[in-house]
Amino acid sequence: MKAIIFDLDGTLYNKSGLAMRLVWLQMRRGTLSLLKREREVRKELRGQHFESEDAFYEAFFARFDKPEHARRWYFEQYMPDMVSVLRQHFRVASWVETVMPALRARGLKVVVFSDYGSVRKKLEAIGFRLSWADYLFEAPALGGLKPCKESFGKICRELNVKPSDCLMIGDRKDTDGEGARAVGMAFERTVKASKPTFAALNQVKNA
How far apart, in Å, are the Cα atoms of 157 and each of 5, 80, 130, 195? Predict the structure, then answer.
């Protein structure tokens, strides 16, 4: 193994209650319908590949009744709201502070790969030190939401490693798991940001 790729939401912190806090906040703002549509569009585009980040967002917002209005809401209100909620109510899982430096000390590349943008701001909001990771990736910037195999492939090419030399850690089989398996990458599921076992890594070590 040469790289460990971590999902963000639900893996590096326990996201229980996040969805309801965001729903409540959008209700207060009168933009709940936009949030509902955002989640529907994510499901519609899940796994599809686009040539660029611009192409992805063009297709994403085109599925709203008012694309430009949705774009402004998403980037100027919704994503900042998410970062703010994380900063106020959520913290990085306790195991992260010791595990991340230990992985890097073993010569492994540590990666954070999120389906959303604003990864750097979200990590900082939960108290994740950016020095703990070597690379940060956002699915839209790679051209497709998980489990888009092209996005997983681009990460491997950026790291200059084979998919078989990577371990994906995530909380969802249908996105993190399917995307990893599509390119021949090992996958381990965690629940509510529990500490991974790194079974695939240990198997290689003991082989």
Answer: 13, 31, 22, 27
By percentage, how much of the chain surpasses pLDDT 70? 98
Hey, is 81 helix, strand or coil? helix
Cβ within 8 Å of residue 145, ≥6 positions away? 42, 45, 46, 47, 48, 115, 139, 151, 175
Supply the pLDDT for residue 207: 44
pTM > 0.90:
yes
Residue 192 per-residue DSSP state: T
- As a three-state string, the secondary structure of 118-147 is CHHHHHHHCCCCHHHCCEEEEHHHHCCCCC
Q: What are 94's two structure tokens? A: 């306790």
Angstrom distance (rounded) from CA 83 to CA 75: 11
Tell me how far apart the 2 most distant CA atoms of the chain are, in Å: 57
- CA-angle at 7, arms to 3 and 11, nearest 5°: 115
| Phi/psi-derived region of residue 38, left when phi > 0, alpha when psi is between -120 and 50, beta in every other case | alpha
Q: Which residue has the tokens 């000390």?
A: 105
For residues 139 and 151, give the distance between their C-alpha atoms in angstroms, rounded to a whole number. 7
Euclidean distance between CA atoms 92 and 138, whole angstroms = 18
